[in-house]
Amino acid sequence: MSAQGNIPVYNFAYLDEQTKRMIRRAVLKAVAIPGYQVPFASREMPMPYGWGTGGVQVTAAVLGPDDVLKVIDQGADDTANAVSIRKFFVRTAGVRTTTDTHAATVIQTRHRIPEAPLAEHQILVYQVPIPEPLRYLEPRETETRRMHALADYGLMHVKLYEDIARHGHIATTYAYPVKVEGRYVMDPSPTPKFDNPKMDHCAALQLFGAGREKRIYAIPPHTEVVSLDFEDHPFERYRLDGTCALCGSAESFLDEVITDDRGGRMFVCSDTDYCEGRRAEQPAAVAP
Amino acid sequence: MSESHMSDDDDEPLLIAEGLGKWYGRQLGCRDVSFSLYAGEVIAVVGESGSGKSTLLQLLCGEIEPSCGRVLYRTRDGATRDLATLAEAERRFLARTDWGYVHQDAARGLRMGVSAGANVGERLMAVGARHYGRIREQAVSWLDRVEIDRERIDDSPRTYSGGMRQRLQIARNLVTQPRLILMDEPTGGLDVSVQARLLDLLRRLVADLKLSAVVVTHDLAVARLLSHRIVVMKGGSVIESGLTDQVLDDPREPYTQLLVASILPP
Amino acid sequence: MSIALELAGVAKSFTMHLQGGVRLSIVADVTFSVRRGQCVVLAGASGAGKSSVLKMIFGSYRCDRGQILVYRGESCIDVAAAPPRGILALRHDTIGYVSQFLRAVPRVPAVDVVAEPLIAGGTPRDVARSKATRLLRRLNIGGPLWGLPPATFSGGEQQRVNIARGFLPDFPILLLDEPTASLDAANCEVVHDLIVERKRAGAAIVAIVHDPALRDRIADDVIDMGRFAAAA
Question: Is the ipTM of this complex over 0.90?
Fold first, then answer.
């Protein structure tokens, strides 16, 4: 395509080839050291920090012309963030997009893992705000790097201890720290702890990109991912007690939707594609 | 029934400083420091500001590297290791299990942002303790031991007084039953009555737990109370050393005599 | 009875650097020995160096010259040449010292002050404490005082705490510096009995005693420190 007046011409998926190469190298290193945060030269993207620049850069680096892209934000395909990122890749890469989890080859997500189990040919790209699980306990980067290098993770359990001391149980409900392949402690991004078990021995490749913090990390397929806990306070999946008002699922992660200003509310599946899929299989259901 | 004061174990020194020296560029930290510390012994390092005593303490735990000389430590398996040859991971492990370091400013030796219980339990968690109930039990027992009200276990050390923070720091250090404690002016800045309480606690713990300790202090009364042996430093060099009561009752060197003569009578 | 302690040619002086390097000679050529079960009393004018000799035997003072030999079973240790660790070991199980004044450690109750050396030697805490209270009672320090730190006691009471502390363990060598200086007749008598018991148990005692009557009753040998006066 040639430039016509002021119409911009983008390289495939916006980033130049050198940048994609640099990111792929970081990704390879991350895959070789599961859970380890690899620094990378995060680029200026046409969206501000905090809007998924890390995830977008990783997706841009792994995307090919034959890929089918799905983008979700808090499980939904139709929120502003998901829509604009999807449009971005349509514009700059011309790839096919889908809302169907099964049909996608690359899924970029903010803060949720799809309900449908993923397959070996798929890549899940997470958007990560703060990659360092120890950050709020130890503000010094020099110290946290050393802790990871020496597998000095006592502090992580201190945080969980504090939760139990203060609330009687581990109160962390999202961004729940995990240990990958028995070595590195990792922040799974602000996904609900309900999703943690899905990361364990997942068939798909999981990539994590933090644009502002300039880190990439990865979990290769079929890798052990264990949530941290205490022997007498084991990890529990937390899920709102209820069923989806639209599809009736008693197993998926639910969002609580306020319906009126008199305390009315309903629970619906956070994963919109999953919910639609279930509804499509059912005989015509009565809407609430 | 009398247990032997010196078992075979104690015949070997626990910590040996050999010709230790540290220069910061052309600025002398300390030089030519040599001594052997045995199990159950307390050595006081006294001197005024700038004498090099704090530098010495940091050299002894490998926090900083010596410009010359070495520090040898006998690990629990009986092997004597040169600290400089330890991998950083090994050194940190020793720092967490075998050694304690009590800072003059308790805030430096504590995590002020987490509860007292978490502060005491951290080392246990760092070496793999994974049972909340048992960790908490140990934390409570140590708080009792350092005379902190166990009701305060979930409070942050920010709500503690200076003396309480210092005692918490001690508990935090002792929970993994270290064999060697390094203390940097442990009573510095505390009120006199608080000091007395802290010293009493330290004396008892050292005796009960058969700890070895190196205590840096400028206060000769602290040295007399806590230590068996004393090293007097001035301008980075060791002026005099020997049994505490010997050096303080029968000081030989001019500087030592000056120090002893400068103590205000009670 | 065999020799427990022997001093040979011991000399002591102080160099006062703060007073322009003035040298004060205290004693020279101190030579004597003490047998097991024997009590040797050092006599002489004030300033003759009696306390200094005791301190040198205990290792609190260094000596300029000479040997201070402690015999224990088969071995013999020269305090004058021993490393700090060696002296600490001797203090732990061989040489006891009742100084003239009690060094009161703040906050520690009297019973614990007395029991401490015994506990350090391995005796269980409760056994040591009950022995301590018995000895304190014998020295007329009553129950109410046992739990109090001695810093607030009278001079005589402090001294008795000090005596109890020194006499409680079974030291083969005992050094006594004016043990009865602030005591009334009744308590002097108790101290006399304690010394006699110790002698009978085989301890070698070196004492500084001013009271001539007491001295005559306990001393097997009186050494006049004037003999060892340092040349001016």
Answer: no
